[in-house]
Amino acid sequence: MTTKTLKASAAGTSVIPALFAVVLGLGIITLTGHVQASALHDAAHDVRHATGFPCH
Amino acid sequence: MFSRILTSGLFAGAAAGLITALLQLYFVQPVLLHAELYEGGDLVHFGADPVTAHPDLPGIFTEPMRDGLSIIFTMLTYTGYALVMAALMSVAERQGHEINARTGLLWGLAGFITFHFAPGLSLAPEVPGVAAADIGARQIWWTITVAAAGVAMWLIAFGGNLVSYLIAALLLMAPHIIGAPEPESFSGPVPTEIGALFAARAFGVGMAAWVLLGSFAGYFWQAEGKRAEAAA
Questions:
Q1: Which member of B133, B172, B176, B196 lies 3.0 to 4.6 Å from B181 by CB, making a disulfide possible if both were Cys?
Q2: Residue boundaries of the structural domains of chain A
Q3: What UniProt keywords are attached to this protein's entry (chain B) (predicted)?
């Protein structure tokens, strides 16, 4: 019974960590792939071309 | 749960990212540097004299700062992908789907289609110097296409009925039927041979990278789960 309750509550809350990780991941991708600030653009230039992001 | 997602995402992303960076430096970067000779005007296509197809190109790490930054940014980018993937793996596992290094191969393939191949079908991987539409418009189209393809991949993998497959097909095709932002005119100085090779290499290395990433993420997801269970 206790185990069941624990499992159920774990399932209920585990969407939030997943959501947080998705936001963090997409944030990193946006920084490395899309942000046009020139320092970032220059540093990531070759990667953006090779990884298929719109670059210029 | 969050530490399991974070750990498997970081490990898988860093490992796959490092291998990808080296593959890109070896297979993609020389093509890009070759194109830059035309972009900068050092070589001229269709000039008075035929141009050699094999100019002297600087080797890997001739510009250590440039190539080093490329390695760091590739690792970062693939870590971002891996975090998203590990989070979705946690959701799929909770729905009863098995996650391991082997099923991870399919996750990787789906990721490649979502983030690289789907947008690249209409916004082909660009060599420097090609004509292209406004960057903002292309980024918006890229983002919408990736989002649609991601949902489509999930529906194909886990939908399990005809309607979800049809919706997936529609989501995959719609951005290309609507069309990506295109330039007003063509002005690229780079020979088409180099452009085609670049696109092919970018896709090929991208697919290898993503399959590795998926498999690594599946492996670390399972390994981290076992470790947590043993510790509990």
A1: B133
A2: 18-50
A3: Membrane, Transmembrane, Transmembrane helix
The verdict on a CB contact (< 8 Å) between B139 and A26 is no
Query: Could A51 and B206 be called an inter-chain contact, meaning their C-beta atoms sit closer than 8 Å?
Result: yes
Q: Which residue has the tokens 């749960």?
A: B1
Residue A6 has pLDDT above 90, yes or no: no
Q: Which of A17, A32, A36 sits opposite B77 (nearest CB)?
A: A32
Amino acid at B69: L
Contacts with A6 from chain B: Cβ below 8 Å: none
Specify the 3-state DSSP secondary structure of B112: helix
User: Would you say A32 and B80 are in contact if contact means Cβ atoms under 8 Å apart?
Assistant: yes
CA B121 from chain centre, in angstroms, equals 12
Q: What is the pLDDT of residues B103-140, one digit of tens each?
A: 999 999 999 999 999 999 999 999 988 889 999 999 99
